[in-house]
Every structure is written in C-alpha cells, then in structure tokens.
Amino acid sequence: MTEPSDEILRAVCDIRDLVRLLAEPAIAARDQKLRSDLRRIVGSSTPKANAVFLMDGSRTQRDIHREAPINEGNLSTLVKQLNVAKLLSDSGKKPRLGITIPANFFESAKTDE
Length: 113
What we know:
This protein is mainly alpha-helical and 113 residues long. The protein has helices at 4-30, 32-42, 46-53, 61-67, 72-84, and strands at 88-90, 96-97. The protein starts with a helix and ends in a 16-residue tail after the last strand.
C-alpha cells in the first residue's frame, strides 16, 4: 500500500506540472530575449540541445558529457557561451540553466511570441 506522503507528493507534482503548463505563455513572454539567445547558441545541434536539458544543477560537465552525445570541448564551449549570455544561474562545476524551457523547446524553429 502506498504511503499517504507519497500520494501527497505525487499530487503536488501533478499540480506543479499543470501550473507550469498554464504559465508557459507568460514565462515565454518574460524570457523572450533569453530564449532567443539560447536558440541562437544551440542552433540546430541535437547534442547541444540534449546537453542543455541536462543542465539542472545536479550534474557536472563530465556527467553531462557521458549522458548526452556531445564532445567535451564542445560542451565546455557551450557552457562558456551560455554563461556569457547570462543563461546559467550557476557557472560552477554543475551548470544550471537559469530559465525554464518546455520539453519541445528546440523542436520548433519559430521564435517565442
């Protein structure tokens, strides 16, 4: 049987996901320039996009390199470019993207409206 705290945590996570979905247009408008810069830096590179999604502050650059099919030098350059563009909230050993992006962010070539 499931613990009551597990059920509460699951419900809170579901609510959080719904709020994020509802807030996405407002977040996109607020972060329009930063998102545009992110798209410019990543370009159409799938390895770079995969690496960006792994930048949640819990992984080192070496961990990201292992999980995403990206060259270590390219990853290091990507982190530096993101840091210069002020897209990282932590430029230390564990990069963390400073803005939120939806899972399909790099699938669309259009800019946020």
